[in-house]
Amino acid sequence: MLPGRAPSHGDQPVCVDCAGITQDYHCSRCGTETEHYRQNTCARCSLRDDLTVLFRVDDAQGSETTATKLLGALCAAQRPESILTWLRKTGVRDLLQRLATGEIPLSHEALDQEPNSLRVEHLRSLLTHHKILPNRDHYLALFQRWLTSKLEDVDDADIRRPVESFARWHHLRRIRSLSADGKPTRGPVHSAKQEITETIKFLTWLRLTHGRTVASCAQADVDVWLADGPTTRHAIRTFFVWAVKNRTGPNITIGFRQAKTVPLLTQGQRLEMLKACLTDNIDTLPYRVAATLLLLYAQPVVNIAAMKSTDVILTPDGPRLSLGEGDPAPVPEPFATLLMEHLASRPNMRTGSSTGSEWLFPGYRPGRHIHPNTLMQRLREVGINLLGARNAALRGLVTEVPAPIVAEMLGYSYQVTQKHATAAATPMSRYVAP
């Protein structure tokens, strides 16, 4: 501890002995010199005492009981004070005690049966982070629970049957495959939920308005539905493509929805925002870094949130970013300095354990990265048009580098970068020869 001050050395913090402090700051239990939390004991020992009573832990029980596993995981927090604060929240002690005593089995499935709440998900994150529960795809699990609830609300069997087949054999199977390959599932889950919801709305309208089902649906029905409503209705296209392919529905044709406008910042606007992120304190360091990744490398916010610290590759020539299947992208100054500062001082590194975090933008839950919605909201608050900024960055990059190279370096498809190159009217002859 450095509780004292040394006026002779610029008021720098100094240890107990140098400051002449006579109070003993050693924990009476473990001997660690630290701030006392309760009756001459440190926060970690106080936490262990509280949990031992709460979990009814007996030293003779050994180390393989649920109670002792929970005790070890919670007491391993780098900041035990945060766990003590968490224990004061409504319902947390009861949930932990029921888990420790076996009333709630130690499994994801058992926690799924509990009322959905932040305390349950926080506990799940802690248990997963400490390997007490196995890793599982968070978004896949949420989708499965959502799907069960959604289908239960559909009373008409002629509507529920085709929707359930579509949801399970197309969407659920695809999302499971993506998860098994280690690919992100948040986006696919979001689109799947929208497509299933819109399909239920359409089939319900078809039944109530015309008394028909999927089997008797006509092209005119679909055309009327699409013409008289919001653009989200086009999400039923995937259902009919699947139904035709699997011969479970009529031969309905729905074209791709074409966006009427493409949000796009001018390069001047983009560069002005980029300058503010790099040179001004427009926000905290993590959000400035995130904004720069959007403005400089055209990375979707969902991808930025899920970046790992290992995606920053240190080389003799400076840091590089692994963003796609191609060569890592160079990081120019002054962003290189900003990125390294963030890497060395990432927030939420002491949440839940002392082992740190693999994420470039750690979230407040152990083992989780920042939620993309949190990042989106923060960037919007500082005045960044997310889609306009991303399109502008891509448009600028394909005017400097051939579209296929941009695609490989940044993780985009060739079609997307070629589309931007075509819109920018950039012929190959304009690129500088290697």
- Catalogue the unreliable spans: 427-434
The count of β-strands is: 5
Terminal CA distance reads 57 Å
CATH topology of the largest domain: hpI Integrase, Chain A
Overall pLDDT score: 87
Reading the helices and strands in chain order gives: EEHHHHHHHHHHHHHHHEEEHHHHH
Characterize the biggest β-sheet.
3 strands, antiparallel
Please give the CATH class of the largest domain. Mainly Alpha
CATH superfamily of the largest domain: Intergrase catalytic core
Q: Give the CA-based shape.
A: flat
Characterize the structure shown.
Strand 4 (318-321) and strand 5 form a beta hairpin. 52% of the residues lie in helices and 4% in strands. The chain has 20 helices and five strands. Helix 8 packs antiparallel against helix 9. It has a three-stranded antiparallel sheet with strand order 3-4-5, with no helix packed on it. A two-stranded antiparallel sheet has the order 1-2. The N and C termini lie far apart (57 Å). The chain has 434 residues and is mainly alpha-helical. The chain folds into four domains: 1-27, no CATH class; 36-129, no CATH class; 138-245, no CATH class; 267-430, Intergrase catalytic core (hpI Integrase, Chain A), CATH 1.10.443.
Task: List key phrases describing it.
mainly alpha, 4% strand, single chain, 434 residues, three-stranded antiparallel beta sheet, 5 strands, 20 helices
